[in-house]
Design brief:
Strand content: under 5%
Number of strands: 0
Number of helices: 12
Mean pLDDT: 82
Radius of gyration: 24 Å
Distance between the termini: 25 Å
Order of helices and strands: HHHHHHHHHHHH
Helix content: 55-70%
Low-confidence stretches: 1-57
Largest sheet: none
């Protein structure tokens, strides 16, 4: 089966999720030096009596800022254009080798994950994603993207194929759980948040749909792919193509024709094939009744 480019699907989701849904403990999208946190006021002792636990204490010493670390992070962040991918990867790898415990580590791993994906260096992409999740298991960007990529890059001859599918499934399900509890960032309007969240949900459902397709669990796959496409800002030809193929297998020919027709209307490498499959599914629908829906 010929899938379209993974990168084209991720362009929108990368921008949207990184903007508002990363749940990262690192800095925000605009580089800035972190202000010193204000220490909480001591709790008054009961009945006005002094207590060693409640006595005013000297504020804790602020973490020391390493100017060289800040400079190295700024150089990485400033290399932000698509044409600087190789430069950014080099700077990120050098930064992490020198400052593995940095407060910026998760953000850099997450960005390197995207860069390795753009270069189709999948092993490095998965490794960077796993390291970002080791720091913050709720990073929606990493959960959604890595869980979505694997079923598109699936190799049935890989001895770890099922293990990887299970890991991808767990990531997408966890992403859906995190998204269900996600508070709206103060910097986003209600409309912006709703669109951003819907796009992330769409991506997660799409990933699950492809995972179930790889397992030949067609009924659950169709359910997830349909859920993803209902929320998608931009329709995905691959999702409709897969739904069409699954519905044909289930002898739901009229629905298969509808899915293929939607695929054919999306410009890209699958358009001609989906048009041909639409005609085939319509002929099958005319020749015999559709099978019962699950």
């Amino acid at each position: 089966m010929s899938f379209r480019s993974i990168h084209s699907r991720l362009q929108t989701i990368a921008i949207l999720i990184v903007a508002g849904l990363a749940l990262s403990q690192s800095t925000s999208a605009q580089y800035q030096q972190q202000p010193q946190q204000q220490q909480p006021a001591p709790t008054p002792a009961p009945s006005g009596k002094a207590s060693p636990l409640n006595a005013p204490q000297a504020p804790a010493e602020a973490p020391k800022i390493d100017p060289e670390e800040e400079k190295a992070y700024k150089a990485f962040y400033d290399a932000s254009s698509p044409q600087q991918t190789d430069v950014r990867i080099k700077l990120g790898e050098q930064f992490l080798a020198k400052y593995p415990q940095s407060k910026y580590a998760e953000q850099i791993y997450a960005r390197l994950m995207q860069d390795y994906l753009d270069k189709q260096e999948f092993d490095k992409m998965y490794d960077a994603g796993d390291k970002a999740l080791a720091i913050n298991p709720d990073d929606v960007t990493v959960l959604v993207v890595t869980g979505w990529v694997y079923p598109h890059n699936y190799n049935p001859d890989d001895p770890n194929a099922e293990k990887r599918l299970s890991q991808a499934e767990a990531k997408e399900k966890h992403a859906l759980d995190v998204l269900s509890k996600l508070p709206k960032p103060a910097s986003m309007t209600d409309e912006q948040f709703a669109k951003t969240k819907d796009q992330a949900l769409s991506q997660a459902h799409s990933g699950l749909g492809l995972i179930y397709f790889r397992r030949q669990d067609y009924a659950n796959s169709i359910t997830e792919l349909e859920a993803g496409e209902k929320l998608a800002a931009t329709p995905d030809a691959t999702d409709f193509y897969v739904m069409g193929a699954e519905m044909q297998t289930l002898k739901r020919f009229s629905e298969a024709a509808d899915a293929y027709q939607k695929c054919a209307q999306i410009p890209g490498p699958l358009a001609d094939r989906c048009k041909q499959r639409t005609d085939e599914a319509k002929k099958s629908a005319s020749a015999q009744p559709a099978g019962p829906k699950p």
